[in-house]
Description:
The structure is a single chain. By secondary structure, this protein is of the alpha+beta class. It has one domain (7-55). Helix content is 32%, strand content 20%. The chain has one helix at 34-55; strands spanning 7-11, 16-20, 28-31. A three-stranded antiparallel beta sheet has the order 1-2-3, with helices on one face. Strand 1 and strand 2 (16-20) form a beta hairpin.
Amino acid sequence: MTKYEIILYWSAEDQAFIAEVPELAGCAADGVTRQDALANAEIVIAEWLEAARELGRPIPEPKGRLLFA
Length: 69
């Protein structure tokens, strides 16, 4: 499980749940269920990070927001 923020929402247009990772440009996934979208997001996050490493591109640190005090 990664520490990057994932925004999860329903897309009526796509008829799927969308999981966007705003800290990683262009990183998003979808799924029939919320769980599918989140699982797919974990996969594409790993692929995004691997590609960035291979290309020598900077990898942003997770923001690690505190949601509850």
